[in-house]
From TrEMBL:
The keyword Metal-binding applies. GO terms for molecular function: cobalamin binding; metal ion binding; methionine synthase activity. Pfam families: B12-binding (PF02310), B12-binding_2 (PF02607). InterPro entries: Cbl-bd_cap (IPR003759), Cobalamin-bd (IPR006158), Cobalamin-bd_sf (IPR036724), Met_Synthase/Corrinoid (IPR050554), Meth_synthase_dom (IPR036594). Coiled coil: none annotated. Signal peptide: none annotated. This is Cobalamin-binding protein. GO terms for biological process: homocysteine metabolic process; tetrahydrofolate metabolic process. The keyword DNA-binding does not apply. It comes from Actinoplanes siamensis.
Length: 352
C-alpha cells in the first residue's frame, strides 16, 4: 500500500484493511502516518474521523463479538484509534487557524456507566471544527458531577452519549436533571434506539443517530422549541423496581440452579464461571432496561446478539435458553417481565 491516497480510497478495502491491521497490531505511528497521508491528499478531516476511525472501530467490535479478537486486542486497538483521532484533531485545528468559538459552549459526556467513549470523542472533535467550545467530560460521568459542571460553566447545550441500553435509566436521570438546570439536551448513540426514539421517551430536547447529524442539528435550530412532556408513568414501575432491587439475589439463585439444569457447567473452569455470572448480570440489566422503557425489542435484540456471541465461542444456544428460563422462573408473578423473557426465548435459534 502506498502513502498516496484519495478520497475514494476511504472505501478501498486495501486501505481500510491495512489501517485495521495497524490498530490491531498496536502500530500507533503507522496508523497516524496513514491518516496524515489522507489529509495531505485532500481528504477532509471529518471523513477521516467518521469513515476511517469510526468505521474501523465498528469493525473492531465485530471482530471481538465473532471471537476473532481478544478483549485485550480490542482495547489496544481502541487506544490506538483514540490516539490517531487526537493527532488528526490537532492537525486539523492547526490547518484552519481558527479563532474563538462562534456557536457557543456545549458539554459532552457519556452517561454514568457508559464506557464506550470513542464515538462521543469523535463528536467532540466534529463540534469543535464546527465552531463550538466543547467541554468533553469523557466516559461514565456521574449525574451529580455533570450537573455541578453545568452550574459552573453555564453551557448552551448538553450532548449525552449512550451506546448500551442498560444505561437508559441513568440517562433518564441525567436528562431530567439537565433540563431542570435549564440546559437543553441532545442525545445520541445506539443505546437510545433506532432513530433515537428512546431519547424522546426520556425527555431529551433533540436526538441524533450519527455524530454528523448531531452537528447539523445543533447548527440549524438550537435551542429547539420546548419539547412536549412525554408520558412517563411506566418508567421505573413496580416490576422494574423489583428487578433492580432483587438483581443480586436473582443472579445468585440462577447460578445456584444452573448446574442441575445444565450439567456441562460442572466442567467449567473459573474463568468460564465468571463469564457465566457476568452473562446473568447482562440478562438482568437488559431486562430491566426493557421494562423501564416499555420496549421488549431492547431485550430481544440483546438475546439475538448474545446467542451469536456465545455460538462464536462454541457455547450452544441451549445454554442461553436455560439461563433465560432460570431467570423467568423467579419472576412468574411479574407479567411484563415474563412476557419479555418469553419473547427473548422465542428469538433464539431453534437448534444449536
Amino acid at each position: 500500500m502506498t502513502r498516496s491516497a484519495t478520497f475514494r480510497s476511504l472505501h478501498d478495502p486495501d486501505l481500510t484493511d491495512g489501517y485495521l491491521r495497524m490498530v490491531g497490531d498496536g502500530d500507533e505511528y503507522g496508523a497516524t502516518e496513514l491518516a496524515y497521508a489522507l489529509l495531505d491528499d485532500g481528504v477532509p478531516a471529518q471523513r477521516v474521523m467518521v469513515d476511517l476511525i469510526g468505521g474501523t472501530q465498528a469493525r473492531v467490535g465485530e471482530l471481538w463479538a465473532g471471537n476473532e479478537w481478544s478483549v485485550a486486542r480490542e482495547h489496544a486497538a481502541t487506544a490506538v484509534n483514540e490516539r490517531v483521532l487526537a493527532a488528526i484533531a490537532v492537525r486539523a485545528q492547526a490547518g484552519t487557524r481558527r479563532g474563538a468559538p462562534t456557536r457557543g459552549r456545549i458539554t459532552l459526556a457519556c452517561v454514568d456507566g457508559e464506557w464506550h467513549g470513542l464515538p462521543a470523542r469523535i463528536l467532540a472533535e466534529l463540534l469543535r471544527m464546527d465552531g463550538w467550545r466543547v467541554d468533553f467530560l469523557g466516559a461514565s460521568v456521574p449525574g451529580p458531577h455533570l450537573i455541578t459542571h453545568l452550574h459552573q460553566t453555564g453551557p448552551d447545550a448538553v450532548a449525552l452519549s449512550c451506546m448500551i441500553p442498560t444505561r437508559l435509566p441513568r440517562a433518564h436521570a441525567a436528562i431530567t436533571a439537565c433540563r431542570a438546570a435549564g440546559v437543553p439536551v441532545i442525545a445520541g448513540g445506539r443505546g437510545f434506539g433506532p432513530g433515537g426514539r428512546y431519547a424522546e421517551r426520556l425527555g431529551a430536547d433533540a436526538w441524533a443517530t450519527t455524530a454528523e447529524e448531531a452537528v447539523d442539528r445543533l447548527a440549524s435550530d438550537w435551542p429547539p422549541p420546548a419539547s412536549p412532556e412525554f408520558p412517563t408513568d411506566y418508567l421505573g414501575d413496580e416490576e422494574y423496581t423489583h428487578l433492580a432491587r432483587s438483581r443480586p439475589q436473582l443472579i445468585e439463585t440462577a447460578m445456584s440452579r444452573l448446574a442441575a439444569a445444565y450439567p456441562a457447567v460442572h466442567h467449567y473452569d473459573e474463568q468460564q464461571l465468571e463469564s457465566t455470572l457476568e452473562d446473568f448480570g447482562h440478562i438482568a440489566d437488559f431486562l430491566a432496561a426493557s421494562l423501564y422503557i416499555g420496549e421488549p425489542r431492547i431485550f430481544t435484540d440483546f438475546t439475538t446478539w448474545t446467542a451469536g456471541v456465545l455460538i462464536a465461542r462454541q457455547v450452544p444456544a441451549s445454554a442461553l435458553r436455560i439461563g433465560l428460563r432460570l431467570v423467568r422462573d423467579q419472576l412468574i408473578d411479574f407479567p411484563r417481565a415474563t412476557e419479555t423473557l418469553d419473547r427473548g426465548l422465542a428469538s433464539l435459534p431453534a437448534t444449536d
